[in-house]
Amino acid sequence: MKKNSLIFAALFAAIGFTACDEGDIIDDDDTVRTAGKTVVLTADLTGIATWGSQYSIVLAGFAESSNYAVTQKRIAALTDGHVETTLDITADSLSTIELCATNRLRERVATFAVISMEASHGDTLRLDAGALDIGQFATLQQLVFTGTCARCHGLGATPAGELTLVEGKSYEQLVGHPARQPENGMRVLPGSASESLLHHVVNGTAPNIRFDHSNMIKEQATLTLIDNWINGGAQP
């Protein structure tokens, strides 16, 4: 009986080895392996304290075609200055690592610096962001005023509505500035988005405005950022 048992064991082992040796094992998992890597951020940041409690300044990882952070680490600095921080990646399939602002849902609101995971040639990626003004108003200037509005409000010989929104002039043209419509209104009334013409213009609820601006800003997160900036005091 013992001899038979040994014979069956030898046959089973031979069959097993033969099955394993028939061709290469093909791994059809095309997941991008990013777990186990570390990102090191260095930057000199100003304006970090202008963001309200609705937002976080973070180093975050995003999957392709998603606006929501898979993983993120809040930047601990509360004042302007040099920042160095690391993010240990524990998830696969990330496409970018970004220094950005996210809301309470971890939705990307604005990106200040980014590095592609394709740039990784080892276990450590370095994101050297340099000197950046990441203030809330500076972010709105780039996202909204420079990126969308300035082509009509400031780049031409005669700015539309006598409103100039180019960098360096937009703040004084908006905050505390009387609006042509409605009478006795303000373009931006600090502390009250609902009483600010800017809010109504970008949301398409402003009366007596010839041009419909409601399709100019399509991201709800950006519209909410405008309101939160105004309600938070419309700081420069």
CATH architectural designation of the largest domain: Sandwich
Number of distinct helices = 5
CATH topology type of the largest domain: Immunoglobulin-like
What topology, given as strand order, has the largest sheet? 3-2-5-6
Q: List the domain count as a whole number.
A: 2
Query: How much beta, percentage-wise?
Result: 25-35%
Average pLDDT, all residues = 85
Return Rg in Å: 27 Å
* Oligomer category: single chain
How many angstroms does the end-to-end distance come to? 90 Å
What's the structural blueprint in terms of helices and strands?
Elements (H helix, E strand, L loop, with lengths): L1 H20 L16 E9 L8 E9 L7 E4 L6 E8 L5 E10 L4 E9 L7 E10 L2 H14 L20 H5 L22 H7 L16 H12 L5
Helix pairs in contact: 2-5
Report on the structure:
With 236 residues, the chain is of the alpha+beta class. It has 2 domains: 97 residues, Immunoglobulin-like; 95 residues, no CATH class. 25% of the residues lie in helices and 25% in strands. It contains 5 helices and 7 strands. Strands 3-2-5-6 form a 4-stranded antiparallel sheet. Strands 4-1-7 form a 3-stranded mixed sheet, with no helix packed on it. β5 and β6 form a beta hairpin. The radius of gyration is 27 Å and the shape is elongated. The relative contact order is 0.12. The N terminus is likely disordered.
Gist?
By secondary structure, the chain is an alpha+beta fold. It is 25% helix and 25% strand.
Key descriptive features of the protein:
single chain; 236 residues; alpha+beta; Immunoglobulin-like; 2 domains; four-stranded antiparallel β-sheet; three-stranded mixed β-sheet; 5 helices; elongated; disordered N terminus
